[in-house]
Protein: Integral membrane protein
Organism: Kocuria carniphila
Amino acid sequence: MTKSTEHNALQQRFGNRVKTKRTDAKSSGFGRLIIVIYGVFSLSAGVRSLYQLGTEFSEAPLAIILSTISAVIYVIATVALTKTGPGWHRIAWIAVWIEMIGVLAVGLLSVLSPELFPKASVWSHFGAGYGFVPLVLPMIGLIWLWRTRPTRANG
């Protein structure tokens, strides 16, 4: 079977391939890298918090609850960054702002009152345990979301 014949057979079986163009700039190009990083943090923070909830909760409830909250925020941001439309853009914007405020607040609290954090959370010491990526990621995310906001992307 020739390549052309094989292609025609596939078209008959599955229909023509329709090329679709993404209309949301936030999830293309550099945005895809941001989505991958958020996905990795969703997974790592989620697994860490589940493990800590099951094994270490009594040792550091505040830190573990904050790790769980950070995991949820990372998941929401990841999903919102992958979706198109102004509503999802707004959800991503809110999630990343909450993340930024959270990492700054928890980072400061963990420095000023380290006794509250016998076990580190993802955001403790401004994300030092993760190479400060939790501090830098929302800054980059907010800049990216601002640059790709629907009013700018469409107009």
Observations:
- The radius of gyration is 20 Å.
- Residues 32-154 form one domain.
- The chain has six helices and no strands.
- The mean pLDDT is 85.
